[in-house]
Amino acid sequence: MKVKNRHKRIIQEPIENVSELFKTLATPEDKIWPKDYWPGMYFKDGLKVGNQGGHGIIRYTVEEFEEGRSVKFRFTKPDGFVGTHELSIYPVSKRSTKIIHVLKMKTSFKASIFWLVALRWLHNALIKDAFDNVENYFSMESANKSNLVPKHTYSFWVRFLRDLYKPKKRLHV
Questions:
Q1: What is the domain range of residue 75?
Q2: Which of 70, 147, 152, 171 could be stapled to 88 by a disulfide with Cβ–Cβ 3.0 to 4.6 Å?
Q3: C-alpha triplet 73, 58, 64: angle, nearest 5°
Q4: How far apart are CA 155 and CA 161, in angstroms?
């Protein structure tokens, strides 16, 4: 199955400011990734072309990287996901920036079912949370907390899937 999943949002900040925030992605100071709600994004040696990493059960390799502007990953796991996902920013005006996430892949039959039933829902919620983090970062920075984007409530299905895929704690015997 061919999958194209696209998210975009306009942030009311100049690209220079959003670019600085973008540089924190996958670092210990990450201000974009919603690590409080989702498995963290991790790369042993940071975001550099050729480095491998991922989040949760998703694994990928950095295929393209322009610091502060864009990063493109190629899936290596789960099996049956063949393609990329990319996060980029573009100036809209002197005072606003568009942030875009695009996932393009072909999936095997088994991976298609997994995408349609579970991962699509989780992916969409995660990306919305990441975009909320970007928007809220600038609202909090300007001390204008009235502009904070409310955290959306997850659907029953997303809550169920998050509980289902929550890492199991190991018992020490």
A1: 2-164
A2: 70
A3: 5
A4: 10
